[in-house]
Fold these 2 entries.
Entry 1:
Amino acid sequence: MGKFDGRVALVTGAARGQGRSHAVQLAREGADLVLVDAPGPVGSVPYPLGTEDELAETAALVEKEDRRAVVVAADVRHADRMRAAADTAIGEFGRLDIAVVNAGIVTYHQLADMPDQAWQDMIDVNLTGAANTVRAVLPHMIERRYGRIVVTSSQAGRRGVPNLAHYCAAKWGLIGLVKTVALETAPHLGITCNAITPGGVDTPMMRHDEVYRTFVPELDAPTVADMEERLRQMNPQPITWIEPTDITHAVLFLAAEESRYITGSVIDVAAGFNANNVA
Ligand SMILES: NC(=O)c1ccc[n+]([C@@H]2O[C@H](COP(=O)([O-])OP(=O)(O)OC[C@H]3O[C@@H](n4cnc5c(N)ncnc54)[C@H](O)[C@@H]3O)[C@@H](O)[C@H]2O)c1
């Protein structure tokens, strides 16, 4: 018997990386899935985002676990598309129990010379997109007085990070959103809303030249190996990467029935990087 037998979960950013890991593990534990991703290009993002093919691959992995997957190619920036995605869950499965609010982007600029588009895209995707997702699922959860909302913030939502003012602002904003939704839904008893704040996770978001240049600015053409060396120096626990599955364990914990009195909380999965945070 799976931990999530009979449950239905919506996962944004499900085409790859952490979102795919969360979706497949939820399916392994019995959940049916609504998978949202493939937004097309986002103007200021220099690396490719998830595609419809990758989204279909995640769906195939869910189906391999003998669960159903419905794919929604949508951009979380569009509130109406997110409402339609939530309605799809109800239409296809008759319920929506879990929302994993995971879609996100990253770009790197000092605030003094950050292009307007970079600021706007970041807030639109990482903050408004997440809010759109939570707003879309909440009415269904409130109606049924049951829901588990898990939002992916970041260690950059717990401290300042040079080159990431826009990302930090969005990810700190998500903590405020989560705590507020936790208070607003607390009277319904069955609904919880929590955040996870990962450290450096090995996903496509972190494997391209702009990241390597930002982490190792003293080299002209740093490689992934140079950046990995820097990550090893940064992490108190002696590791290079956190794996997507490490984040998934925390998602599944917060999505479970047993976590019913955990709401408005933030869980660091960051190899000790969080231990220096003041918040
Ligand atoms: N990788 C890390 O080191 C790290 C650390 C802390 C937090 N995070 C956060 O974890 C989450 C997952 O990222 P990941 O590491 O799996 O990276 P990723 O780039 O592999 O996955 C992110 C997914 O979100 C999707 N997405 C982006 N913008 C979208 C939009 N507008 N509409 C719909 N989908 C969109 C992408 O297409 C992609 O498939 C993000 O919110 C990210 O900010 C990542």
Entry 2:
Amino acid sequence: MIPGPRAHIDLSALEHNFQISRRHTPNARQIVVIKANGYGHGMVQVAQALHDADAFAVARLAEAIYLREAGITKPVLLLEGVLDIEELQLAQRHQIDLVVHCLEQVNLLIQATGSAINVWLKVDTGMHRLGLNPANVSKAFQELTSCEIVNKPVRLMTHLANADDRQDNLSQQQCDTFKKTCVDLTSEHSIANSAGILGWPTSHTEWVRPGIMLYGSSPFVNDTAANWDLHPVMTLSTSLIAVQDYKKGDAIGYGGSWNCPEDMRVGVAAIGYGDGYPRHASNGAPVLINDQRCEVVGRVSMDMICIDLRNSPGASVGDTVVLWGKGLPAEEVANRAGTITYELFCRLTSRVKFTYQN
Ligand SMILES: Cc1ncc(COP(=O)(O)O)c(C=O)c1O
């Protein structure tokens, strides 16, 4: 049987990338970010593979509970926190650590009873998404510290808005604002995401929060993972299901958006936007067939892409087509599709078959 779209997850590459994070921040504890199903790689499999992670971070309560139900016992940090008493009680029951990013959440904790919980107070130092205004941090910190159900110390965190751009001084300013805001508050701190870990040493504090770098992708714009010795974790591939001969001028696929420049062979591979392959990768995205680089031609359709086979003349039905991963950096495909690797990885659908290798 000719296999369809499949994502091969190399867990030894994941571990390797984790060690790169450690090497850059040897004194920090690592909160491994595995929200959105481990950036599409499989949240539980990633959590189980990274034995040395100090904690995991997810965005939603359901993700955190899913980890607990899968038997993950390490600290799990809920990056969006909880918004009502019902959610708080679930977090308490499952021993989930909470980000507190607004005054409503502070008040919720002040009024709550029950089992003790770890809390990270989030400071908005310039991202302007979640977090308390620095002017309100000291009071909220004291209130949380006096809270019956809150373990001490209340920890402090912020998030960098533009750390992927190493020329932008905003990251340095955010670190300065954070340190100034926290100077009189005895606590532990966390600033750095992947870009902070690799590119902004001033963001290195007691805790760091690596995400995309662990999955083998550079966090920086116009950069590749190889520059940081990061190894791709996911290799997405499929098979050729047809090879056709066309004449010069023949139009390929929906809308006929690409015409054969000469008599040539075109391959059809079983993957499309219904599998999560980006439709914006039409006309020009690279693929690998038998280690030869070829290009997507015509529009990406729901289940198929067409490929210019002039670089791989021996290609035949059943051959493997690599969409990204080993030998073909996902950053390149993301650039071509006008997106980022985070989105490529997260968007794969349930039609893609996942396999894991230690
Ligand atoms: C609060 C927070 N910390 C850390 C991360 C990890 O970021 P990255 O994947 O860029 O390392 C994220 C991801 O979006 C985040 O939202």
